[in-house]
Amino acid sequence: MMSCLWCRSSWMIICLTSHLLLLGLAGSGVLAAAPRTPVNVPFGRNYVPTWAFDHIKYLNGGNDIQLTLDKSTGTGFQSKGSYLFGHFSMQIKMVPGDSAGTVTAFYLSSQNSEHDEIDFEFLGNRTGQPYILQTNVFTGGKGNREQRIYLWFDPTADYHFYSILWNLYQIVFLVDDVPIRIFKNCNKDLGVKFPFNQPMKIYSSLWNADDWATRGGLEKTDWSKAPFVASYRGFHVDGCEASVNAKFCDTQGKRWWDQKEFQDLDAFQYRRLQWVRQKYTIYNYCTDTTRFPLMPPECKRDRDA
Ligand SMILES: *[C@@H]1O[C@H](CO)[C@@H](O)[C@H](O)[C@H]1NC(C)=O
Description:
Layout: H1 2-7, H2 12-18, H3 23-27, H4 43-46, E1 47-51, E2 56-59, E3 64-69, E4 75-79, E5 83-93, E6 102-109, E7 117-123, E8 132-138, E9 147-149, E10 160-166, E11 170-175, E12 178-184, E13 201-208, E14 228-241, H5 267-280, E15 281-284, H6 297-301
Antiparallel strand pairs: 1-4, 2-3, 3-14, 4-13, 5-10, 5-14, 6-7, 6-13, 7-8, 8-9, 9-15, 10-11, 11-12
Bound molecules: 2-acetamido-2-deoxy-beta-D-glucopyranose.
C-alpha cells in the first residue's frame, strides 16, 4: 500500500478508491510544496573553477560569471563542499546564436567508482533551432536513464532557474518552478539503487561535444562563431555539507527538505509534470524498447520515472 502512495502519487485517486483507509494520509498531499526560493549568492561563496581558469569571466563583483568555449578549450567549475541531500539551483542563460555542438552541463556527482550522479545537459543548436535538455540519473555507477525535452521558452534569451531537490524520498529536477522529472526512492525491492549514502559535489561546464550533441552529431560546431558564452548567476546551495566519505548527514531528517511536504509532489506539480511529458518530451529511456527490450525496473512501477 505504501508503494501505491510513494510510487504512483499521480494515481492517488485510483489508489484511494481501493484503500479508503489511507484517505487521511493522502490528504496530507495537499501540503506538498515547491522548494524554497533560491537565494542569490556570489559565485565564490560556494564554487571554485575546475579547469581553464582563464576561460571564466567574473562580472558584477563575482555575482555573475561567464563560461567561454573556444577552439582551444571549454571550462568548468565545481562546488567547494560535498553534500548529502538539499536544494541546489543556478540561473543560466545558454549560449546564444549558433550553439550547435556545444553542451552546457549542470550536475551533481559523487567522486567514487560506483558513483551517483544527477544531470542536466543542455544541447545547443543552430541559430533559431531549439535546444534540448537532457537529464540522467546514475545510481551505484549505473546510468542509461536519459530523458530529453524541448523547453517551453528560448533558454538563450533570459536567465532561468535550473534546480535539483534531493532528499531521502525523491530527486526532483525543476526548470523555474516546473518539475520536469522525478526519480523516486521506492524501487529498492526491484534492485534499483537510490543515492543516499554518497555525498555529491555540484559541477557545471561548457564544452564541445559535436560528436553527439546536435542532431546526433550531424551538426558540427562552427568555430568561426566562437567564442561561445554561457552566463550564470544565483549560486544557491542549501544542502547538508558532509565530508567526502560520510555515509549520512549530521542533521539528516531534520532539515526543511526532509519534511512531509517535500517527500512527494502535490497534485498541481504532478499536473505540470504531465504537461511537460505530453507536450515537450522527445525521448524517454522508459519507452525505448529497441534499446531496452526488458523495460528498466523503475519504469515498470512508476510512470513518472
Ligand atoms: C536542433 O534542431 C533540429 C531541427 O529543428 C532538431 O531536430 C533537434 O532536435 C534540435 N536539437 C538538437 C540538440 O539536436
